[in-house]
Amino acid sequence: MKFLRDKIDQIKKPFGKGEKLEKFAPAVNALDTFLYVPNHTTKHGAHIRDAVDLKRTMITVVLALIPALIFGTWNAGYQSLSQIQEVVPFMDALIHGMWKVLPMIAVSYGVGLGIEFYFAIVRGHEVNEGYLVTGLLIPMIMPIDLPLWMLALSVIFAVIIGKEAFGGTGMNILNPALTARAFAFFAYPTYMSGDKVWVSDATTTDAISGETILGKLAAGQEAGYDTWSMFAGTIPGSISETSVLWILVGAAILVITGVGSWRIIVSGFLGAAFTAFLFELWGANPLMNFGMSHLLVGGLAFGIVFMATDPVSAAQTTRGKWIYGFLIGFFSILIRVFNPAYPEGVMMAILLLNVFAPTIDHYVVEGNVKRRKKRVAKQLKTA
To answer: What class of enzyme is it (predicted)?
Structure first.
């Protein structure tokens, strides 16, 4: 390791203070701190010493995403091949999926990190680690056949408008990955919704049908899949959103390591289950009659576990997290049921609650202040 450390120090010399390439130091430092803990100290404000820094936190989230990503890559190939041949070997499905998914990941990281490096050099600050997660999340929540140039434009919009315009990592109001998906959804709706976008090569092969369960229910049809298929994720959908099983494995990693808020995750599922139960009592259409199965399909589980728990755009207070998560689950099912044109509602629900998260925290804090004032006044009266 000392050999590597010495080599990196040697490479960094021309980028040091007062040297010819000093302006580009943030780009080199980003590569250095990817391998080693930064050796600089904070100079202003509060100082917190902890063994886990932002980079390690982001890498933990990336590791939590890996199970869903691997399954989603295999499922992307399986969904395509299973509709044109009876037997689908595991490796054939995985290779087909990798052929589609890896270029999307490469474009997402290439374009997004390029913009991050540019803003760091221009503004003269270090490259933040937030895009390690965002760069992986964006392709995971997109349709498998989304053209790469559309993905690149979505990344540009998310990084510049959703993140850098507010000051960069830690300053964004909305979840950047969902901002990218929202941009793609409204800019290129024919590539983001419909029966032909969720299965690879469905638009060019007549034999392939890629209608999602929510799409079928919105059209008044039966779901067409059993509960295990919905839980395991062997159904059409966004690249890595279909398997609740592997998403829960990722959730366990986030909760055990303390990176993700279990309060938001639990309250999110409770909000969705409560709303689904109420609509099942009403039972006016197939979407209402779907009941607790709502928790197993679409992007609900993925959104609650990996998007709603974003530490920047989520509520920060303990009670606020319960309210924030519950409302995300509530609005997700509400949008599904009342908007047949867009039965997947978790994206809009999370973005909506991102906007209201500071308000929720404000009223939670104000409520605590009022209760303490009343308690002190009562103690003074009895003293």
So the answer is: translocase
Contact at 8 Å (CB) between 79 and 199? yes
Eight-state DSSP code of residue 126: P
The model's pTM is 0.87
* Unique residue bearing structure tokens 């979505």: 154
21 CB neighbour count, 10 Å cutoff? 13
Residues in contact with 383: Cβ distance below 8 Å, sequence separation at least 6, in sequence order: none
The mean pLDDT of the chain is 87
Amino acid making up residue 12: K
Amino acid (1-letter code) at residue 66: I
Q: How far apart are CA 270 and CA 277, in angstroms?
A: 10
What average pLDDT does the segment 186-205 reach?
A: 83
Secondary structure letter of residue 204 according to DSSP: T
- HSE-up (13 A, CA, CB side) for residue 205: 17
pLDDT tens-digit map of 320-358: 999 999 999 999 999 999 886 776 789 999 999 999 999
Q: Nearest 5°: phi and psi at 298?
A: 70, -160
Asked whether 212 and 236 are in contact (CB, 8 A), the reply is: yes
Determine contact, residues 33/120, Cβ cutoff 8 Å: no
AA identity, residue 50 = D
Q: How many CA atoms lie within 13 A of 127 on its CB side?
A: 23
The answer to whether residues 136 and 250 touch, using CB atoms and an 8 Å cutoff, is: no
Non-local (6+) Cβ contacts of 39 within 8 A are none
Place of tokens 């474009």: 107
* CB-CB neighbours of 273 under 10 Å: 16
8 Å CB contact between 137 and 177: yes
Q: Which amino acid is at 289?
A: N
Q: Which residue has the tokens 């503004």?
A: 123
Check: CB of residue 302 under 8 Å from CB of residue 247.
Answer: yes
In which residue are the tokens 């993905």 written?
Answer: 151
